[in-house]
Amino acid sequence: MNITLKRLLGATAAVTTGAAALLGAGAGTASAKGRVHCDRAERVIWSSNGPATEVIAHGCDLPDDNHRWYRIDIDTLVHTHHEMDYQNGKVDRTKTLHDRTVRCLGHIAKKDTVLWFGCPPS
């Protein structure tokens, strides 16, 4: 193989590796930027439809800017299982989960309570 061709291939490999490393580091910091922490949260589990897409949380540190998706780290998440498909129905049981992460599209904050919406079941 020609020495010029070897050098050209080596330089291309070095540039490609460096670009991949830089893109990987940038992607990591971009995803960490949308993270939020909440002390406790509740999520309703309906009898026929499964988990609701809303999470009601308390003690959250809200982000200063808008993101497409938020990653919420929750210390204590309580799943409330309902027997019927309406809010005032009888609660069948509750299940407490610790150290969970939920993805959501947005939030509405009022005092200490935050309604996270667009949260697909995890």
Automatic annotation (TrEMBL):
<protein>
    <recommendedName>
        <fullName>Ricin B lectin domain-containing protein</fullName>
    </recommendedName>
</protein>
<keyword id="KW-0732">Signal</keyword>
<feature type="signal peptide">
    <location>
        <begin position="1"/>
        <end position="32"/>
    </location>
</feature>
